[in-house]
Design brief:
mainly alpha, about 85% helix
Length: about 150
């Protein structure tokens, strides 16, 4: 497990990308609240907020999982198997959390399932580039860090 300055840099990078995820989510909500309210009323807005929140939390969990896998490797450069794990596990975790959260919220009966599903999909796609940039940078940084 990495310690010292490299370890702190990794977690600071996560914090920067987490702030970016929140900013993108807020922009998405800001752009979507009026059209959603016009089409479905205040109940639709609550479904939109829940859908965006589920995607945001899933994205944060995926990025944290990637960082934990990279930090836990204990080596300056990831082996190919570890690199695959650091890519696939967070992606599967994110998708699983979005599906589980969407099902839980949709089956609760408190939210319009159509609006919830639409905003889950929109926010999932909107946050994906931020998470991809984090993954590319962290895996690239892992490769270039000194032993």
């Amino acid at each position: 497990m990495a310690t010292g300055p490299e370890h702190m840099r990794s977690w600071k990078a996560l914090a920067r990308y987490a702030i970016l995820l929140v900013a993108v989510s807020l922009l998405l909500i800001g752009a979507g609240v009026l059209p959603t309210m016009r089409l479905g009323g205040s109940d639709a807005v609550s479904a939109m907020l829940v859908g965006c929140g589920i995607s945001l939390l899933a994205g944060l969990a995926g990025m944290m999982a990637m960082l934990v896998i990279i930090e836990g490797s204990g080596t300056a450069e990831l082996r190919p198997a570890d690199r695959l794990t650091a890519t696939v596990v967070p992606m599967a975790l994110r998708l699983g959390l979005v599906i589980a959260g969407g099902l839980a919220a949709g089956l609760s009966g408190h939210f319009d399932p159509r609006v919830l599903l639409i905003w889950l999909a929109i926010s999932y796609c909107a946050l994906l580039p931020v998470e991809t940039a984090f993954a590319v940078r962290r895996l690239g940084a892992q490769r270039s860090e000194p032993s």
